[in-house]
Amino acid sequence: MRRTPALIAGGGPAGSVAALLLAQGGDRPLVLERSREPQDALCGGFLSWRTLESLANVGLDPATLGGHVVRRVVLFAGKGRAESPLPAPAIGLSRLRLDALLLDAARTAGAGVERGVTIRSAEDTTLHTGDGAAVSGDTLFLATGKHDLRGTMRDAPVGDDPAMGVRVRLAPNPALTRLVGDAIELHAVAGGYGGLVLQEDGSANLCMALRRSRLKAAGDLPALLRELADELPALGERLAHLHGTPAIDAIANVPYGWRAKGTVPGVYRLGDQAGVIPSLAGEGMGIAIASAIRAVRHWQGHGPDGAPDFQLTLRRHLHRPIALAGVLRTLAEHPAAHPLLLAGGRVAPLVNAMARWTRITSVSRRSANPA
Ligand SMILES: Cc1cc2nc3c(=O)[nH]c(=O)nc-3n(C[C@H](O)[C@H](O)[C@H](O)COP(=O)(O)OP(=O)(O)OC[C@H]3O[C@@H](n4cnc5c(N)ncnc54)[C@H](O)[C@@H]3O)c2cc1C
């Protein structure tokens, strides 16, 4: 069996940043990533100012990412609209670009990256791969994100009406560019919401989190999109720019609100494998990156046995952002609460506070005791 000091399962934002920092520390980590080529993962593609701060802290200059600059948040609910400036500029960036940049940075720093390797299961710090091989690490950094591995499943209850993620891309179009501009738009509908933002190539990414019951009632995804367009005129105006048969990506059973209660020595859980923030906060990638920075710092001081302490501390740090995002999600998906949401959305200091309190604190890779 192959053995390595630091083994990383998954090469998304969490796994790549952990690999980058470990490699910079001279530890030659190994990343196993299922996709052969960079993928445009299902995600809203909104990188908050705090996420950009975290990237800067690991030496990735946000100016070089080439994202579409976002300065405002605009909320649509029913026939109402509210707008407020963001606390600081953010960007819209496709996962195709972000994931490729991060994994390349890790590889350049000296991390081993093996693509096209599907991990079938995990047993303590050993990963069993699709080709029947096994790789063992002194430490395993678990960063498979939205996908669970047999042996390390998240203990999140599915519930009666779980959330699903649905994403469509709208091709670059001058009218749409004028409509959305430098905003991150939040569209609140019964049973969910959608986030819409322009990205580096001028396309718009509409990514929604909707209760499964909405899909069941509509019948299929195209019918669901038509229903949403009728329900919310502003969303309909944007969806009118979808032509032909659009590619619609979907993911089921997103365990919003879940936080890992702990872990075993040797296994550090990162990103969505540590906690899942409702996506309307636009902070999942921020948590992925910040958790990787905190994990590597903790590991450098405490080694494999430090994992349980790290996990408990991270759980505490995730409490406020995830709980508050959960409250906002509940308001967004209940039309009776939309007047309240819109009233709040017009009070810039309140939006500012909500925006800040749904972020995880960014840490420098050198700060003391960051976990
Ligand atoms: C609808 C929706 C919209 C969102 N919008 C935003 C947003 O706008 N802004 C934001 O910050 N966050 C957003 N998020 C959250 C964000 O997408 C996640 O929090 C973030 O991707 C977590 O990063 P990660 O590295 O933990 O996992 P992931 O990004 O899921 O990466 C995991 C990696 O592991 C690999 N992998 C998985 N299983 C295996 C396996 N068995 N073997 C080998 N490799 C494997 C995958 O291929 C992938 O590369 C959204 C989430 C949803 C559901």
If you had to describe this structure to a student in words, what would you say it looks like?
The protein is of the alpha/beta class and 371 residues long. It has a domain at 2-157 and 255-357: 3-Layer(bba) Sandwich (FAD/NAD(P)-binding domain). The protein is built from 11 helices and 15 strands. It has helices spanning 13-24, 49-57, 95-109, 174-180, 212-218, 221-231, 233-239, 284-302, 307-333, 338-345, 348-357, and strands spanning 2-9, 30-33, 46-47, 68-77, 80-92, 112-115, 119-123, 126-129, 134-142, 163-170, 183-189, 192-198, 204-211, 248-254, 267-269. The strands form 2 sheets. It has an 8-stranded mixed sheet. Strands 1, 2, 6, 7, 8, 9 and 15 form a 7-stranded mixed sheet that branches. Strand 1, helix 1 and strand 2 form a beta-alpha-beta unit. Helix 1 runs parallel beside helix 8 (284-302) and helix 5 packs across helix 6. The protein is globular. The model has no long low-confidence stretch (mean pLDDT 95). Bound molecules: flavin-adenine dinucleotide. Flavin-adenine dinucleotide (FAD) is lined by residues 10-15, 32-35, 41, 43-46, 51, 118-119, 143-147, 149, 165, 195, 207, 209, 254, 271-272, 279, 282-286, 288. Residues 10-15, 32-35, 41, 43-46, 51, 118-119, 143-147, 149, 165, 195, 207, 209, 254, 271-272, 279, 282-286, 288 line the site of flavin-adenine dinucleotide.
Summary, kept brief:
36% of the residues lie in helices and 27% in strands. By secondary structure, it is an alpha/beta fold.
According to CATH, what is the topology of the domain at 2-157 and 255-357? FAD/NAD(P)-binding domain
The biggest sheet amounts to: 8 strands, mixed
Report the C-alpha radius of gyration, rounded: 20 Å
Percent helix range: 25-40%
Using DSSP, what is the number of strands?
Answer: 15
Identify the CATH homologous superfamily of the domain at 2-157 and 255-357. Answer: FAD/NAD(P)-binding domain
Mean pLDDT: 95
Measure the end-to-end span. Answer: 32 Å
Q: Based on the structure given, which CATH architecture of the domain at 2-157 and 255-357 is correct?
A: 3-Layer(bba) Sandwich
Q: What would you call the structural class?
A: alpha/beta
> Which CATH class of the domain at 2-157 and 255-357 is shown?
Alpha Beta
